[in-house]
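Agenda item 2: adenosine-5'-diphosphate complex prediction
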Amino acid sequence: MERIIGIDLGTTNSLAATVIEDGPEVVAPSGENPITPSVLTRSSGNWIVGEAAVAQRLTAPEQTVYSVKRLMGRDVEELAEEIKELPYAVIPAQRKLVKVRIGTEEFTPQELSAEILREVKRRAETALDETVSKAVITVPAYFDDAQRQATRAAAKLAGLEVVRILNEPTAAAIAYGLDERKDGYVAVYDLGGGTFDLSLLKLSGKLFKVIATHGDTRLGGDDFDRELMTLLRERLLAEHPEVTFERAETQQRLRKTAEEIKIRLSGSPETAYTLELPECGIMPQGLVTQAEFEERIAPLIERTLASCRKALGAAGLTAEQMDEVVLVGGSTVVPGVRKAVERFFGRKPHVAIDPYKVVAIGAGIQGHLLAGGRRDFLLLDVIPLALGIETLGGTFSKLITANTTIPAEVAEMFTTNVDNQTAIDVNIYQGERELVEDCRNLGRFKLRGIPPMPAGLPLVEVAFRVDANGLLIVSAKEQRSGTAAEIEVIPSHGLTQSEIDHILEESFDHAISDFNARQLIEFGQTAARMFRGIEQCWTVAEATLSTEERQELRTQMDVVRSSMQGGDAAALKRQIDALGELTRPLADTAMGRAVLEELQIAAG
Ligand code: ADP
Ligand code: MG
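Presented output:
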């Protein structure tokens, strides 16, 4: 099977992904950043691509090309505004297309994109230790024919055969395995460095169709940086009114610090910064809070939502009609963005896959499928098999059901079975069967220090939390005493999709017998409780029931006992019900009421 890699050829960043043994992965030489900035610089007749070129944006702005994706397949007129802002020379070429001039040399956008692709290909080859010649390459959903053709041409120049041009939002949906779900609508919210795109996809029969797009080609994380730059500049001027920001160096430092602050704020409520400005002889320091940042970017986020409204309007759909929402692009890591999107669509967006990588991963999966590979790896953001704990008699109590989207959190109350029980075992299982002996044990821990109380009185809350990375944290807390314990486990570890399919099949095959086995255990517990109740008020029985009635009661208890030994849950239930009937007269007495209550609990 010849490998077909997936490539996200981005405006700001590019990267490749493919399916390896464990599933889809971004590929990069070990120890290196998997992301290649889509920036290239000309140096003594050679190209330098990626990280090393980024540094040259400042020192050699006329030789350093970025945002080449904006030029692909577009003509001079369409690009008039764009060209004014770019520090490198963009000149008209034949058929109204454009070229980039560096010194005396001229390059088409395809040639420049090809250099980026060549670097991505080279890095993938180094990482995989094999030659790579075929690829699925992603483009924005709104790309027209000319833009798609230009992308194909770029790939060809880089020595890559394009097996398919894939829409970026579709790739993101594939990464989350949404093509395997039931038909419906998917909204893909993509906020990158310099562009915003909202795409509405309609899934029918495993195929996605783009039904509407709307966006803003001048809105993205760079604007967030700009807001923070303004904030820094304001603060700086308040203290040092003499500072000017004319020097490119100063601008660049300001920009870099702003982006660093932004990225740190994605992971913490506030961050300290030091702005190094040796050229001005100062080194101002300060603190920015997430709240301050969110206030500044609120109007920008609102603009993205306006785009969402337009796209929905064009498609004649409402936000509530979306079945799934997917986040794409580095800027969707910003907590304020996530919150706003969740509020707008009224549902939790998919976030488990790094939004930086999700398009490449989807392209990698598509390439794998086109190469004849199978989707026999785990979906990345759903819990594949139910998670729960062992309860009385070896039954499996599911807390989180299969196909729940992560992150997820569920808590349930449990209690003790025996008087004065001071510890409970929390035994964690994964599976789809009714008895824990047919499930996979994931781990166990003991909650100790429960104050002695009658059985059924302690309130133990068991909480299952699966974080965005699939890590399961199980905690137990006795509510009255506050005693608590927890454990962390990786639920799907070591399981492939085909193993999971097998487990699911088995659970279907055993559905009826499992149900019976579980009921046998549960009815057995009911019967045991009834026996205890009857023995407890035997003096009441002696006073209320005739000898024959008492004998009948004893006989029926024996029938229930022998029925418990048999394997038929329905038959056991019938005998328990008959026993219930015989104990009814006991309930008319004060002492017997307690028993009745017990029996009601038991029957419930
Ligand atoms: P593109 O699709 O335009 O190539 P990307 O999806 O790679 O863009 O996103 C790049 C943007 O994401 C940049 O503005 C970068 O600063 C921003 N970004 C990356 N990581 C984070 C983060 N942790 N928090 C906030 N923004 C981030
Ligand atoms: Mg992108």
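Discussion summary: The longest strand covers residues 207-216.
Owner for follow-up: CH.
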